[in-house]
Write a structure and sequence with these properties.
The complex is a heterotrimer of chains A (about 450), B (about 160) and C (about 190). With about 450 residues, chain A is mainly alpha-helical. Chain A has helices at about 5-20, 35-40, 55, 105-110, 115-125, 130-145, 150-180, 185-205, 225-250, 255-260, 265-270, 280, 290, 315-335, 355-360, 360-375, 415-420, 420-425, 430-440, 445-450; strands at about 65-70, 85-90, 90-100, 215, 220, 380-390, 390-400, 410. Chain C is built from 6 helices and 4 strands, in the order H-H-E-H-E-H-E-H-E-H. The longest helix of chain C is centred in the last third of the chain and has 16 residues, at about 135-150. The chains are: A mainly alpha (about 450), B alpha/beta (about 160), C alpha/beta (about 190). The interface between A and C is large, with 42 and 35 residues.
């Protein structure tokens, strides 16, 4: 019967060995050189333009003065399987290292064995909160390589669905942000509004989430009858409810104290870290791909780009709340200006023929067969196509070798890059603010890990 | 097609590429200086860095003067002030691919380079933390390489096409 | 006098029925949302598809306080040991619902990175298919689990090989088989 303390130590070693990720985690200071310390404190501080303050890195701290804790992949913050290793001095966070990969699905490898039409089902599960954005980025890349034109109506339908998705995504963010702060009412409100949008998605595409609605060449199906009434109800309800959220949160002193001045970031730091989306706009840089490099029909609708001033949590909250209002505005314009016409490109090499024609025409039967067994071939080439998803710039780099399946599909997930801001934002803050910082960066682990 | 920056190293091959304003094909020696020249010229953000394994498509179309290798690193730069995009494709090597790290110019490439190392095995010189990021620490192999199987498990009741 | 009022205030039953009722009426789930299914799980807990009517709206963060682990989402190779550790920390009696096709069988992703079915790591009681299963499907899975608890073993522990449920008994509700109706055809 061995010594009880030794048995405990063995058990601890065994259990931690199961889930330790070795070098990927945060190492104690004795094993970390000063360059690495500087990087873990905030990578931008190593850049020559921004000076590295030696006091900022706490060279003189010893290992026994600080504590490294692990906020493991399964934790109360409702933002998916992100593992954070934090070095704490009491309540203050010094260094942070996010360990990711707990949701790595090999989607880029799977994309190489799926045809282009099947690819949408794969890509849509990356950023699972805004599936239409993923599909849109992917389909636009495929269409650029195919060099086909998408009909007007399909463009406007895509735009409307993308903006409705933005509304749903930001509502989810507000719900989970409220939950992380402890404002559970916001969780109920956010999901209640989101159900309206999801019910419309179910009516149009068949599914609430992971729609696979945007396909290369257009959309999968036309909008259902009576969609104008549904969308009008959605717009009116959600627009009014944003003022309820203002009443609940924006002016409320506890919320303001927890968000104002917490985790600020400057524009230089944001640009150096390649941040995009509400994080970049909160610093004052008015960069929105829908305005700067318009795609779909965004140059034909009126909307404002919401920009913050201080780059703190409150600015990001305000930006997302107002983006809901702007998206509702865009959807209203889509409602008025929706053109009639085809909802998919009529190119027979890309779009399968209507089912009824298969019985009549041999050619239609052959096209249908080829398109669904093998898939359409995309000419040789490579393209990078980017759109503005609710989290930032969602880019799709597609390489084709002339076959029916992509040769290489790489999706630039905005959350993957935005997560690099987390060590910088958490530095010097309190542990309780750590949760709000993750929430404010709005990572979706599906697109971080892919 | 926009011109190369004045400070760019001489002899960089350029070409017209789809959906970007310029495509550059530097060698591994010209790569870092070219990116620095772009950065000084107003390309504030490095949007994306990824790797491609051309094992099954070595005969891809490349402009004259570019010697193709198996691995390629593709960098997309963005200028917010001028609203321009540039794509840089550097041929990284065949057996042991290695390029310079862009971390000192664009700290945002840190995670992207780690991903390229993890999934393809491309090494980046002077990268501060060259460890795996997506796969477990003790994983062997680089999954996205073309000679690494997808890992399909044969499913019962379904005609399994065999190992891919 | 007072004793006459007492004739309506007694409740008798078997100990097993009481224990089973207590166990199924307040199953507390552990937070184990991984991917897209987690969003639908949260939607099931929210106002429209209320889980609070089953006593389940409190998602316990500590696995020691939880009874049910709803594995919602795809389990990657890196996450598998973490999943097992969280499951081991739960106290008996404990149940597992595998929500979504990725947790049940690997789903869309038959590749190197995803564990092909969470039942390779933990024993599963109910599988809920769908990608993602709508909150109604999840609730059906939860009700199936309640049915299993209502008719199941109470004394054996899962680790000692407790069977997941006993054979169906006569008072278990089964759906009616629909009768085909011929319309418009003369007899």
């Amino acid at each position: 019967m061995s010594d009880p303390t030794v048995r405990v130590a063995e058990r601890v070693d065994l259990l931690t060995a199961e889930t330790s990720e070795g070098e990927q985690g945060l190492q104690p200071r004795s094993k970390t050189n000063t360059d690495e310390l500087g990087r873990e404190v905030g990578a931008v501080l190593r850049q020559s333009g921004l000076t590295l303050d030696p006091n900022d890195v706490d060279y003189e701290r010893r290992d026994d003065e600080t504590m490294i804790i692990n906020m493991g992949p399964a934790h109360p913050s409702t933002h998916g399987v992100l593992r954070l290793m934090l070095e704490l001095d009491g309540e203050f966070v010094l260094r942070t290292k996010p360990v990711i990969g707990y949701l790595h699905t090999g989607m880029e490898k799977t994309a190489e064995v799926l045809s282009y039409v099947q690819g949408g089902t794969n890509v849509t599960r990356m950023d699972y909160v805004s599936p239409v954005a993923n599909e849109l980025g992917y389909c636009m890349a495929v269409e650029k390589l195919l060099a086909i034109e998408v009909p007007e109506r399909a463009i406007w339908i895509r735009m409307m669905m993308a903006e409705l998705n933005r509304v749903a995504s930001h509502l989810l963010w507000m719900a989970t942000n409220g939950m992380d702060l402890g404002a559970t009412t916001m969780m109920i409100y956010g999901f209640r509004e989101r159900e309206l949008v999801l019910a419309f998605f179910e009516k149009t595409a068949g599914l609430r989430m992971n729609l696979n609605y945007v396909r290369p060449g257009g959309v999968a199906a036309d909008l259902p009858d009576g969609w104008e009434d549904d969308v009008l109800v959605i717009c009116d309800t959600i627009y009014e409810r944003t003022f309820e959220y203002d009443e609940l949160l924006t002016g409320q002193p506890i919320f303001r104290n927890r968000m104002i001045g917490v985790a600020p970031i400057t524009a230089e730091e944001a640009l150096a870290l390649s941040l995009t989306g509400p994080l970049l706009r909160s610093t004052g840089v008015a960069w929105d791909l829908r305005r700067a490099m318009p795609y779909l029909a965004y140059d034909q609708v009126d909307f404002d780009v919401i920009v913050g001033t201080y780059g703190d949590n409150f600015d990001r909250y305000a930006i997302r709340l107002n983006e809901i209002r702007e998206s509702v505005r865009i959807v209203r314009q889509c409602l008025e200006k929706m053109p009639s016409g085809d909802y998919r490109s009529q190119d027979p090499k890309v779009t399968p023929p209507p089912r009824a024609r298969i019985d009549e025409s041999m050619e239609a039967l052959i096209h249908h067969f080829k398109l669904f067994t093998e898939g359409f071939h995309v000419p040789v080439g490579e393209v990078y196509s980017a759109i503005e998803s609710p989290r930032g710039e969602l880019g799709c780099y597609l390489v084709s070798d002339g076959g029916p399946k992509p040769y290489r599909l790489h999706v630039r997930g905005p959350s993957f890059v935005n997560l690099q801001a987390v060590p910088l934002l958490m530095r010097g803050g309190l542990l309780s603010d750590a949760i709000t910082v993750i929430s404010s960066v709005d990572p979706i682990m599906g697109e971080v890990d892919r | 097609m926009i011109p190369l920056p004045l400070a760019a190293p001489p002899g960089v091959v350029i070409a017209d590429v789809l959906a970007s304003d310029l495509g550059c094909f530097p060698t591994t020696d010209q790569y870092f200086d070219l990116v620095r020249a772009f950065k000084d010229e107003g390309f504030e953000m490095c949007v994306d860095l990824c790797a491609v394994d051309y094992l099954e498509h070595l005969d891809r179309p490349l402009p004259d003067g570019v010697k193709e290798t198996r691995f390629e690193i593709v960098v997309n730069l963005l200028s917010l002030s001028k609203k321009l995009r540039v794509r840089i494709r550097v041929q990284a090597g065949n057996e042991e691919p290695r390029v310079d790290s862009l971390f000192t110019l664009y700290p945002g490439t840190e995670a992207m380079e780690r991903e390229a190392f993890d999934l393809y095995g491309v090494l980046f010189t002077n990268h501060p933390d060259m460890t795996r990021i997506l796969m477990p620490e003790d994983w062997e192999g680089h999954p996205l390489r073309k000679d690494y199987a997808v890992g399909k498990v044969p499913v019962q009741f379904k005609e399994s096409p065999g190992p891919r | 006098m007072a004793l006459e009022d007492l004739q309506h205030n007694f409740l008798t039953g078997q100990v097993e029925d009481l224990v089973r009722w207590a166990r199924r009426a307040s199953v507390w789930p552990a937070t184990f949302g991984l991917a897209c299914c987690a969003i639908e799980m949260m939607a099931a807990g929210a106002a429209d598809y209320d889980l609070a009517r089953y006593g389940m709206e409190v998602f316990r963060n500590s696995p020691r306080q939880a009874d049910l682990m709803i594995v919602a989402g795809r389990v990657s190779q890196k996450m598998a040991p973490v999943l097992r550790q969280v499951y081991d920390q739960m106290m008996e009696p404990k149940w597992v619902i595998s929500m979504g096709v990725c947790a049940s069988s690997g789903g869309l992703f038959n590749n190197y990175a995803i564990v092909q079915g969470v039942d390779q790591i933990v024993p599963v009681d109910v599988y809920a298919p769908g990608c993602p299963p709508s909150p109604e499907t999840l609730m059906h899975a939860i009700l199936t689990l309640h049915e299993q608890i209502r008719t199941g073993e109470i004394l054996q522990r899962r680790s000692e090989g407790r069977p997941t449920h006993v054979e169906a008994q006569s008072n278990v509700w089964t759906p009616e088989v629909p009768v085909t109706v011929r319309v418009g055809t003369p007899k």
